[in-house]
Amino acid sequence: MHVMEGFLPSPWWQIWFAISLPVIIYGIYKLNGLIKNKRDLLPLLAVAGAYIFILSSLKLPSVTGSCSHPTGTGLAAILFGPAISAVLGLIVLLYQALFLAHGGLTTLGANVFSMGIASPVIAYVIYKACTKAGLNFYIAVFLACAFADLATYVVTSIELALAFPAQNGGVLTSFKAFATIFAITHIPLAIIEGAITVLIFKYVIQIKSDVLVKLDVLSEAGLRKIKEMTT
Amino acid sequence: MKLEIIVAVIVLVFTAQFLYISSTTDAEYGGADGEAEGVIDELTGGTYEPIADPIWEPPSGEIESLLFSLQAAIGALVIGYYFGYYKGKKQPM
Fold first, then answer.
1. What is the Cα–Cα distance from A70 to B92, expressed in whole angstroms?
2. The pTM is what?
3. What is the rounded distance in angstroms from the CA atom of residue A91 to the CA atom of residue A87?
4. Which of B1, B13, B24, B33 to mutate to test the interface with A (most CBs of A within 10 A)?
5. Minimal CA–CA distance to A3: which of A148, A158, A119, A120?
6. What are the helix (H) ranges across B1-93?
7. Which of A106, A221, B2, B92 is the most buried (most CB within 10 A)?
8. How many Å apart are CA A202 and CA B4, to the nearest integer?
């Protein structure tokens, strides 16, 4: 999903930095609050970060004959909200930029925006909307994570299209060209990410469901309903 | 168990599409990131020069896959520990 090092000309890479930086600062501020006041939630925070680590290292072959990797930010977004997810995303993106030459330091702002901000926001909004509409919890998680994953790639396409508008047709033509590579390749992977994240939630409910109530992911009543359903 | 079965079916369908497509076409399965580079070349007529180079690149594909596996291993370790710890705590011996 990365915009590769050096592949965003001025002023675009600065713009994305300017957009991402405030969110990261807010995320660090929220993270500090979590570390100080809710220490019992830290193990789950580690899981959310680790999940992004795993999924973004797995480059999967897709129907278009090219490879791409899921991002895993949906889990963090549902549990801890978009701001904290942005910080977790930043950690993974730094690892990959420094050690793997995937993404890069000049494009870090843009990559943080697509993977760490836009995608978690989509996950969060879809999850909240689905639960409000009374949809089944697991279906809500699936939709939130699948679309969040896809959103990363759509946003990456937008970022590249804005920086490289086609000579005839402009941004829209470029967007189509980039989206064909990124977004279409990614549809099957988004489905897989959604499905696997559902399983993670199922196991969290089995072993430590109280954290979900604490994090306001589920209400007491909602949790009871899911538990009755599965037993 | 129902959820596990659904997920298993999704993964199986995914594997089947990979086996089918990889055996019927000569797809290269390169990274989508690199393909974007091709599109940029096309859009700019090959005039675009990256404004920066990665400060360090894995010297070979082997090293790269080592670092990728390391990334996944760290993640898997943490998740396994978490689920194992709380599962164990729930069922005292």
1. 37
2. 0.94
3. 6
4. B33
5. A158
6. 2-24, 32-44, 61-90
7. A106
8. 10
Share of chain A above pLDDT 70, in %: 99
Cβ atoms of B51 and A10 closer than 8 Å? yes
The tokens for A21 are 């930086």
Block residue for tokens 């600062």? A25
The partner residues of A61 in beta bridges, in order of sequence, read: A67
Min distance B5 CA to chain A CA atoms (Å): 10
Q: What is the pLDDT of residue A146?
A: 97
**Which ipTM value was assigned to this complex?**
0.91
Q: Encode pLDDT of A126-138 as tens digits.
A: 999 999 999 999 9
Q: Under an 8 A CB cutoff, do B35 and A13 touch?
A: no
Please report how many Cα atoms fall inside a 13 Å half-sphere around the Cα of residue A44, on the Cβ side. Answer: 27
- Helix (H) / strand (E) element for A29: namely helix A12-37
For residue A92, CA distances in Å to A85, A210, B42 come to: 11, 28, 30
Taking an 8 Å cut-off on Cβ atoms, the answer to whether A192 and B10 are in contact is yes
Q: Are A71 and A56 in contact (CB under 8 A)?
A: yes
The chain B residue lying nearest A41, using CA atoms, is B82
CA distance B93 to chain A (A): 16
- Interface membership of A99 toward B (CB under 8 Å): yes
